[in-house]
Amino acid sequence: LLFLSCIFQMDTTQESYLDLFPLDAIVYLTPDSEDGKYIDPNKVYILGGLVDESIHKKLTLRRAQEQSLQTARLPIHEYMVKNVNTKNYHSETLAINQVFDVLSTYYDTRSWPAALKAGVSSGKGYVLRDAVK
C-alpha cells in the first residue's frame, strides 16, 4: 500500500490505511466520485491504483463506499473540456504518477489549471478551457 499526505510524505506499509488513519481523515480519490472537492491539507488521500477502466468501471468508487470513506475526484470537469481528436477518446482516469503530478503541482502552485496541465496528458483527450480557441 502506498499513501501520501498533503505534504507529500510517502510511505509504504503492509498495514491497511483503515488501520492507520481515522475514517473521517481518509479521502479516496476516484474519477467516479461526484464530489470535485478541493484539497484539504488535513486529509489523507488514497490513490486508487492501476485499473483497466474498460473492465473494472467504478471499482475504486465501490471500494471506497464499501469502506464508508469519503470520495473526491480531481476537478477535471471544472477546468477542462473535451478536445476534438481523431480517436474520439476521452478519459478522466489517470495513472498514479499523473495524479501525483497533479497533486504535487497543485500543492506548489495552488493553481488547478497549472496542476491539471502538468498531470493530464493530451492523450486523455482533455485540454484546459482557456486553450480552446
Automatic annotation (TrEMBL):
InterPro entries: MT_TRM10-typ, MT_TRM10-typ_sf, tRNA_m1G_MeTrfase_euk. PROSITE patterns: SAM_MT_TRM10 (PS51675). GO terms for molecular function: tRNA (guanosine(9)-N1)-methyltransferase activity; tRNA binding. GO terms for biological process: tRNA N1-guanine methylation. Keywords: Methyltransferase, S-adenosyl-L-methionine, Transferase. Residues 1-127 form the SAM-dependent MTase TRM10-type domain. It is an enzyme of class 2 (transferase). Its EC number is 2.1.1.221. GO terms for cellular component: nucleoplasm. This is tRNA (guanine(9)-N(1))-methyltransferase.
